[in-house]
Write a structure and sequence with these properties.
Layout: E1 5-11, E2 15-23, E3 32-41, E4 45-46, E5 49-50, H1 53-71, E6 77-82, E7 87-97, H2 107-118, E8 126-138, E9 141-144, E10 154-165, H3 166-178, E11 182-188, H4 189-197, H5 200-205, E12 207-212, E13 217-223, E14 226-233, H6 237-248, H7 252-262, E15 275-277, E16 288-290, H8 291-315, E17 326-329, H9 338-346, E18 350-352, E19 358-360, H10 371-387, H11 404-412
Parallel strand pairs: 1-6, 3-19, 6-11, 12-17, 17-18
Antiparallel strand pairs: 1-2, 2-3, 4-5, 7-10, 8-9, 8-10, 12-13, 13-14, 15-16
Amino acid sequence: MADRIITGLDIGSTAVRVAVGHVLPPEAADRVHVIAAIEVRSAGVSRGAIVSIEEAVTAASTAIEQAERTVGVSIDSAVVGVSGSGIISQSSHGVIGVSRTDGEIREEDVERAVDAARMVPTPANYEIIHVLPRSFTVDGTAGVRDPVGMTGIRLDVEAQIIQGLSSHIKNLTKCVHRTGIEIDNLVLGALAAAEATTAARSRDLGVASVNIGAATTSVIVYEGGDVLHVAVIPVGSEHITSDIAIGLRTSLDVAERAKLEYGSAAAKDIPKREEIDLFDLGAAESEKISKKYLCEIIEARVEEICEKIDRELKKIDRSGMLPAGVVFTGGGAKLQGIAEVGKRILRLPCTVGYPIGISTITDKASDASFATAVGLLLWSAESRAASGDGSGLASKMPNFGSIGKTLKKALKSFLP
């Protein structure tokens, strides 16, 4: 059983989450069966970046040990999520000549084209995490999804390059290795969350996956099944808690409890006379506050987040123009009323996304906060299927099953 186990490790600012499962056969309705979903309080991580190796290693080790006890086997490797504000993306173009006399394009030609697209100027202190091919052109014929087997003398590829801060990636890698875990792949956490919460049809039509974490909000826009835009907004659910603490003149702990137990982003739905006693939430003294006022504080910050998301959509001329709308996920997406505010500000259909395409024995795996960890499992399943290691679907990020081996090889080459 141990050789069939796959693991996703998400080291966030407030929690370390571990999802463990195994790949289901191709004929199954779901892709992955999740057998453990572990969450422990994070330490040594701020705004998605590791600020104390020792504390982060301790928290990650605790989560992994709990996962091992739950599944009853040793965990030797994991797909690890990369998050934080130091993420940038850019479009790239690669072109090669097909040297074969019969002109048939093979996987090695696709690999060379992807390598050519990777040759872009990289900002100082940044390194490539992903090279995601969007489409190919064969001898001027654009929009080719899978060029393998076609005949031509010139192969072009349009790709999206996702880069992260070298220092953050190296610290994350060092932290994971010190827990005794090998890294199968480093995957952008927001990309994994989108994989877990958006359907293939939505990604074809056009959808934005918005992962609201503690310190940052990540936005990934898809169209035609491909990644069109990636952005990280330096505002998250922690900022909502801070606003509440300032507005109510109370501690962060009390503010967090107030947000979780009584918070809503739809202040208009809250009766004016409804009150909350902060003493019941852990305050030292009895102090009654208006629940509507609490929700107005939350709504203001959620509106700001949505306005920043809309600015990102305007950059790519997709503001109010995504047929499949916006899918909010992550721990911050569980805030009541967030979809209603999103619909009003973004002028798009908005829903809260939960992991799909999985079966599970634990309800926690179906929680929005576990979208990234579960998405890392799905990514691992795709990689194994593409490399012929285990069962599952062919690579679909992007939908080029026949070049899955090439993409897996490329991804593994990015590990520090």
